[in-house]
UniProtKB/TrEMBL annotation:
Top-level taxon of origin: Bacteria
Subcellular location: Cell membrane
Stretches assigned to the Major facilitator superfamily (MFS) profile domain: 8-393
Species of the source: Pseudomonas agronomica
Membrane topology: Multi-pass membrane protein
This protein's name: MFS transporter
Length: 397
C-alpha cells in the first residue's frame, strides 16, 4: 500500500534535515590541518576541538533527548536548526581556537538535540522506513560533509568559509519550511522533568540493547577515529599531502556504510549484526596492514569493508531495539542509543589522540585497531551463541 504524498514529503524533509546536521558535523575534518597552519595550534588542541563537539552532543542527548516527547517534534527541531545556524556563523568568522571551540560546542549540542528528535519523528511517520532513513541519512550526511568540504577546500575560493555559508543557507531554508510539517506528537505535561539528565531505556528493550552494544561500540569507535585522526594517519603512513585524502577516507567509510544499509534493508536484524561484526574484523585488519605497507589503495579497500561493517551493524542495532519502544518512549530510547554510541565515538578517539603524544601515531593505531578487532570478535561470538541457543532449546524440547 502506497503512503500518502504528504507523508512522503515529510519523510524526505526529515531525512534531508538529518543529513544536513551530520554533513555539518564532518565538514571541519578536511579543514583541521588548514586551521592548524593558520592558527598554529598543537595536535593536543585539535583533539580538544574534536572532544568538545562530542561531549556537547552527549550533553544534549542526556538533557533534551526526550524533550520532543513532551513539547512536540517541531519546536525542538526548530531550536536545533537555530543553534546550528549560530555555529555556522562562528565557523565563518573564526579567528582563533576559542572561536572554533565555541562553534563546535554549539554545533555538538544542536546535533545531539536534532539526532534524537529527527530519529523519533521519522519513526512517527513510518515505522518500517524510519529506521532505514535514520541509519542511512547520518552516514550519507557525513560523506557529503567530508567530501564536499574537501573538494571546496581544494578547488574553490574561501576554503575556510564557503562550506559554512552553504550550510547556513540550507539550515535557514529548513527552519522556514519546518512549520509546514505536520506535528506527530501531542504536547503533554512533564517537559521540565524530562530535562533531568537520564538514560531512558524501556524495560522491554534492555536485553536487546545489551546484546548489540559491543558491536555498536566498536563501530562508532571506528567512526570517531576516522573523523579525528585518519587524515593525520594516512599522511604519516603514506606521505600523501593532498587536502582531499582525509575527506575521501571519511566519505568512503560513511558512503559504503550507507550503501550497505540500503542493500541489506530487507534482511533480518540478526543477520545484519553478524555480517557487520565480520566485516569490521576484516576491514580493520586490512587497514592495519595498509598502515605498515604504506599502501594507499589498501587503505581505501580496508576502509570500504570497514564502512560496510559499520553500516550493516548500525542498521541491525536500530532494527533490534527501536520497534520495542512505545510511541512516547521512542525519543528517549533513541537518545539513550546515541549517548552510548557517541561515548564510543568520542572517548576512545580522545584517548588515542593523547596516546599519540607518548607512543606516536602508528603504534597507537596498532593498539587501537587490535582492541576494536577483539571487540568485534567478541560481539560476533555473542551473536552466534544467541542464535545457537534457541536451536539447542528446540532440539532439547
Amino acid at each position: 500500500m502506497s503512503r500518502p504524498a504528504s507523508t512522503r514529503v515529510s519523510l524526505i524533509f526529515l531525512a534531508i534535515t538529518l543529513l544536513g546536521f551530520l554533513a555539518a558535523s564532518s565538514a571541519p575534518t578536511p579543514l583541521y590541518h588548514l586551521y592548524q597552519e593558520h592558527m598554529q595550534f598543537s595536535p593536543a588542541i585539535l583533539t580538544l576541538i574534536f572532544g568538545v563537539y562530542a561531549f556537547s552532543l552527549l550533553a544534549a542527548l542526556l538533557v533534551v533527548g526526550s524533550l520532543s516527547d513532551y513539547l512536540g517534534r517541531r519546536p525542538v527541531i526548530f531550536a536545533a536548526l537555530l543553534l546550528n545556524m549560530l555555529a555556522m556563523l562562528l565557523f565563518i568568522n573564526a579567528e582563533s581556537v576559542a572561536w572554533l571551540i565555541g562553534a563546535r560546542l554549539i554545533q555538538g549540542f544542536a546535533t545531539g538535540m536534532a539526532t534524537s528528535v529527527l530519529g523519533a519523528a521519522l519513526l512517527d511517520f513510518d515505522r518500517q522506513q524510519g529506521p532505514l532513513i535514520t541509519s542511512v541519512a547520518p552516514l550519507l550526511g557525513m560523506a557529503c560533509g567530508a567530501m564536499g568540504c574537501g573538494l571546496l577546500a581544494e578547488f574553490a575560493p574561501m576554503p575556510l568559509q564557503l562550506t559554512y555559508w552553504i550550510l547556513l543557507a540550507l539550515f535557514a531554508l529548513q527552519a522556514i519550511y519546518l512549520w509546514r510539517l505536520a506535528e506527530s506528537v501531542s504536547p503533554q505535561p512533564g517537559a521540565w522533568r524530562s530535562l533531568r539528565p537520564t538514560l531512558h531505556v524501556p524495560v522491554q528493550a534492555r536485553r536487546a540493547l545489551w546484546l548489540i552494544l559491543p558491536l555498536d561500540l566498536a563501530a562508532w569507535a571506528v567512526g570517531g577515529f576516522y573523523l579525528s585522526l585518519a587524515p593525520s594517519l594516512v599522511r604519516a603512513a603514506t606521505g600523501s599531502t593532498s587536502n582531499l585524502i582525509g575527506g575521501a577516507l571519511v566519505a568512503v567509510l560513511t558512503l559504503t556504510g550507507a550503501l550497505s544499509i540500503y542493500a541489506l534493508r530487507n534482511r533480518a536484524a540478526d543477520m545484519m549484526l553478524r555480517l557487520g561484526a565480520s566485516l569490521l574484523v576484516l576491514g580493520l585488519a586490512l587497514v592495519l596492514i595498509a598502515v605498515h605497507t604504506a599502501s594507499l589503495p589498501l587503505f581505501f579497500i580496508g576502509t570500504l569493508i570497514t564502512g560496510s561493517g559499520f553500516g550493516s551493524g548500525f542498521l541491525g542495532a536500530l532494527r533490534s531495539i527501536m520497534p520495542l519502544a512505545l510511541p512516547h518512549e521512542r525519543a528517549g530510547l533513541m537518545s539513550a542509543f546515541y549517548v552510548l554510541s557517541y561515548l564510543a565515538f568520542s572517548l576512545p578517539s580522545l584517548l588515542a589522540g593523547n596516546l599519540t603524544r607518548i607512543y606516536g601515531l602508528i603504534p597507537t593505531t596498532n593498539g587501537f585497531g587490535a582492541v576494536l578487532i577483539l571487540m568485534a570478535v567478541g560481539a560476533l561470538a555473542g551473536l552466534l551463541r544467541q542464535t545457537a541457543k534457541p536451536l539447542a532449546d528446540g532440539l532439547r524440547s
